[in-house]
């Protein structure tokens, strides 16, 4: 694969589960099970990120940037406690966490990930 090739995983009409171009992977994760509380949904999304990173040939140490959307910024302490356990020491990506209305009323978190492959 050349650096100009684009690789898409899980392509649907509206989105791809992940896109890789120029040695960088781009993807978005929302919880598969939105019936869980915020802690459960965040833990779920972090586990889903691990799976997606593996799919594209990467891992947590290669995260470049993570944009986190929470409908309730009061959930930031829960996010940070799980995040601090999940991110390998010395490999924290650039990160932003913003309050936003999400596409589903039961969704407590959405993350946009950029990672080196």
Question: What would you note in describing this structure?
Answer:
This protein is α+β, with helices and mostly antiparallel strands and 117 residues long. It has a single domain, classed as 2-Layer Sandwich (60s Ribosomal Protein L30, Chain: A). It is built from two helices and six strands. A six-stranded mixed beta sheet has the order 1-2-3-6-4-5, with helices on one face. β4, α2 and β5 form a beta-alpha-beta unit. α1 runs parallel beside α2. It starts with 5 loop residues before the first strand and ends with a strand.
Could you give me the name of the CATH homologous superfamily? RutC-like
Oligomer description:
single chain
- What would CATH call the architecture? 2-Layer Sandwich
The helix content is 10-25%
Number of helices: 2
Amino- and carboxy-terminal Cα gap? 13 Å
The CATH topology turns out to be 60s Ribosomal Protein L30, Chain: A
- What is the topology, as strand order, of the major beta sheet? 1-2-3-6-4-5
Low-confidence stretches: none
Mean pLDDT across the residues is 96
Number of strands: 6
Task: Kindly give the count of domains.
Answer: 1
Q: Sketch the major β-sheet.
A: 6 strands, mixed
Strand percentage lies at: 25-35%
Q: How large is the radius of gyration?
A: 14 Å
State the order of secondary-structure elements, H for helix, E for strand: EEEHEHEE
